[in-house]
Structures are given as structure tokens and as C-alpha cells.
Amino acid sequence: xxxxxxxxxxxxxxxxxxxxxxxxxxxxxxxxxxxxxxxxxxxxxxxxxxxxxxxxxxxxxxxxxxxxxxxxxxxxxxxxxxxxxxxxxxxxxxxxxxxxxxxxxxxxxxxxxxxxxxxxxxxxxxxxxxxxxxxxxxxxxxxxxxxxxxxxxxxxxxxxxxxxxxxxxxxxxxxxxxxxxxxxxxxxxxxxxxxxxxxxxxxxxxxxxxxxxxxxxxxxxxxxxxxxxxxxxxxxxxxxxxxxxxxxxxxxxxxxxxxxxxxxxxxxxxxxxxxxxxxxxxxxxxxxxxxxxxxxxxxxxxxxxxxxxxxxxxxxxxxxxxxxxxxxxxxxx
Length: 333
Fold this sequence. Notes:
There is one protein chain. The chain is of the alpha/beta class. It folds into 2 domains: 2-130, Rossmann fold (3-Layer(aba) Sandwich), CATH 3.40.50.2000; 146-321, Rossmann fold. The chain has 12 helices and 9 strands. It has helices at residues 10-18, 30-45, 80-93, 104-115, 146-151, 171-184, 206-210, 223-227, 241-250, 263-273, 290-301, 304-332, and strands at residues 23-26, 97-100, 127-130, 158-161, 187-192, 214-218, 232-237, 254-256, 277-279. Strands 6-5-4-7-8-9 form a 6-stranded parallel beta sheet, with helices on both faces. Helix 9 links the parallel strand 7 (232-237) and strand 8. The longest helix is centred in the C-terminal third of the chain and has 29 residues, at 304-332. The radius of gyration is 21 Å and the shape is globular.
């Protein structure tokens, strides 16, 4: 969220003096933006602290069962961070428009009340421009040989595992991922961001046993290029928004468990509303077992439910291309 917040009220004051229009670019999706813009209303109407409201929060465009517990950031009404968020909303409402990296086919329910200016009662909601899906371009070469390896795989044959640039799993979780991959009996490409030696990915001799149908790479791979490759048929991810949009652009269904930030809200869209992803069940401490991971990968790759997700994500891929062509042309005007 902090990347999306401009907390200083100085910006609109300066822009008014210089007669410069303000446009905010919001890097997360519309569902998070809707909640963010509605925070002052929740704060004003709440009879007790927002974080203590364990009941549905009626926010236009959001699921009816959404509560403060589902919000991905701290809602302590007395905290300095929360006060900065309120000030940030006030600053955003003074802008001419807010630019959002999303499109109707993936977040239509959240975009409709934003476009109809229903989010801020008796207030001013800026014009919304949906310009997605915009995704980070792949950079660097193929120093790890990922793409060369993919070129040797059959069409729609393997699952890709990557959990963003910030996640560092403990050794116990890495072992369970390795166990799950073996149990799934699927081809795989796994990006491991860890200081551990790859040889420590027990079960014993995991790398040797899976070398014919799997590849494990440390730290980095060209994710966008991998997700758009013809061999890719599934994506195990954390629901980060850029990763989600890359998967949609590539037409790749997902298996995922949210880890932090707005990812739990992204899960609602992809699993419950769009049916393009399967959810990983976690223990109370956030741990995913190898049995759970292997079972969900196998279901995605080889089951009726998985096929349904593949059909839905293919339709969304077509819609994303149409949105990109249309919105890109509109935005350039």
C-alpha cells in the first residue's frame, strides 16, 4: 500500500498554484482502490474502531461478506499510518482522475461503482481510467537457460512456480514444496529465492530424481516470457497483482495462496468470482503442506475443475487483449 500512497497535501496545493492537473496512477487493482477511497466513510460512520468491526462492511463493488479482517493493511484508527491513509484519500479526491492498472473483464464489479462515483458518499470521486493490463516487461537474458528448457517441453505441459521478489520461505516450507512437486508428478519450473543450497531441498536427492521433468532455478527468471510460452499450463503464485496480470495475459490458470499486502483480495476475484484459480489451503501459521500443494497442482493440470479454470482464463486472455488494444488507444488520445 505504501507504494500507492501520496501522503503530502502539498502536492495539490502546488498544482493549483501552477495550474497543473493531478493524475494518480494506482498500481494495485480496483478492489483495493475502492476500499482505500471508502476508508474515510468507514471511519466516520463506525461506532467503534474499524479494526474491531467483525461484521460485513458494505462497500459498493465488494463481496457482501467482506470484513475488516479481510483488509490487507492495518486499520488501527489511532495509528499514524491510518491517519496518513486518510490524508492520502483526501489528496487523491482532489485529482482530475485516477489511473488504475485493471480492466472490466477481471474487475468489472469493483470498477462499476468507481465509474459511477458511488464510493465516496456526498463527496467527489475522481474520474477513473482503466488502462490495464499493463505489466512489467521481461528484462535480462536467458542466463539460467529457462527459455531454452521450455523450448524442449511439449505444448501445455508444465507448471511454473514463482512467489515474487520479496518472499523468502523457510527451509521447512521449501521442503514441502519439493515434496508437493514430486507428488504431483507434473513437469515443473521452480524459481527458488533462498540463501539455502538447492541440494538442501529434501526429500533426499530431489534434484536428481526430478531432473528429467523439472528445473529448479535460483533467484530470477524471465517470468513474463515464461508465462507467455506455449509450454506453460499452470502457475503457482502468491497473487501479486503484476503476476496475476502476467498470468491473465498469458492465459495461464493459477494455484495460489496469498502471502501479504492486497493478495487476499486478489484471491477473491480470481478464485471466487472468475474461477480462473485454485486456492491453497494453509494451516493457522500459514504453512502449506506438500500433500496440499501436490494435490492442487494435479487438480489444476489434470481434472475437470482444472479444465474449467483453463477455459475461463483463455476467455479472460482474449478480453485482456481487447482491453489493452482499446484502452491503449484511448489513453494515447
